[in-house]
From TrEMBL:
Organism: Gloeocapsopsis dulcis AAB1 = 1H9
Domain of life assignment: Bacteria
The family this protein is said to belong to: Belongs to the short-chain dehydrogenases/reductases (SDR) family.
Keywords: Oxidoreductase
Single annotated GO MF: oxidoreductase activity, acting on the CH-OH group of donors, NAD or NADP as acceptor
UniProt-recorded name of the protein: Dehydrogenase
Record InterPro entries: NAD(P)-bd_dom_sf (IPR036291), Sc_DH/Rdtase_CS (IPR020904), SDR_fam (IPR002347)
Length: 252
């Protein structure tokens, strides 16, 4: 349980759901420090306590911020790098918003809501990668963007969220191509249907017990964050399919 020994990570959307589970798993895997980011201060502080209890010797930094705001992104990166003495090995762009709920068709989609979804789900990952790259280039690192099947197929009613994930897929591919000759690798993961607050809000009529618990899909993220995956760059993974087994088999 030390695949991330000595590494420093920044995880957005980490007060609950997948982000929180990733932070807890990273702590158990020996990370030296984790910065967690979310908008809600109370939930974020609860998350910080959980993570710190899981790894008392690890640095846990909680940054209350809204990634849809460029000035908050500046503060997130500056605070994180200051706390970690300029070091960052892992960036997980997990923060996401579903937008209007129940989700309207595009014809009825409010413009401000549409913009907010794009700012959170697409512009924020672009800016975060851009801002942390100088700290990652020298020692190398792993950037993992959280995508969705709604970023591959346009579903009616998924509006701005799906469009933002289409954009994130293209953003990931472009960053990966431009960083091909560097020590920084970029991959993106579709975690599949999970029992999270956001998914319950998106599909209130569905049975959430049929969806995976976030802790069931963390293995591929840990693998991609670790040095074991150093040869994987510019690839898309589906956490609930056989991608993790294929990746580890190929690496072996």
């Amino acid at each position: 349980m030390s695949r991330l020994q000595g590494k420093y990570a920044l995880i957005t959307g980490a007060s609950q759901g997948l982000g929180l589970q990733l932070a807890l798993q990273f702590a158990q895997e020996g990370a030296a420090g984790i910065a967690i980011v979310a908008r809600g201060a109370e939930l974020l502080e609860e998350a910080r306590h959980l993570i710190q209890n899981a790894a008392p010797e690890m640095k846990v930094l909680a940054v209350t911020a809204d990634v849809s705001q460029p000035q908050d992104i500046e503060r997130i990166v500056a605070t994180t790098l200051n706390e970690f003495q300029g070091r960052l090995d892992i960036l997980i762009n997990n923060a996401s918003t579903i937008g209007s709920s129940p989700m309207p068709f595009l014809l009825d989609y409010p413009l401000e809501d549409f913009r907010n979804v794009l700012n959170t789900n697409l512009i924020a990952p672009f800016l975060l990668i851009k801002k942390v790259l100088p700290a990652m280039i020298e020692n190398g690192g792993s950037i993992i963007n959280v995508t969705s099947d709604a970023g591959v197929t346009g579903y009616p009613g998924w509006g701005a969220y799906g469009i933002s994930k289409f954009g994130l897929e293209g953003l990931s591919q472009t960053w990966a191509a431009e960083l091909e000759e560097s020590n920084v690798r970029v991959n993106w993961v579709d975690p599949g249907n999970m029992n999270t607050a956001m998914h319950r809000a998106a599909e209130p009529d569905e049975d959430p017990t049929q969806w995976a618990d976030p802790q069931e899909v963390t293995d591929i993220f840990i693998y991609l964050a670790s040095d074991e995956s150093k040869d994987f760059h510019g690839q898309r993974f589906e956490a609930q399919e056989d991608d993790f087994e294929k990746a580890t088999h190929e690496a072996a």
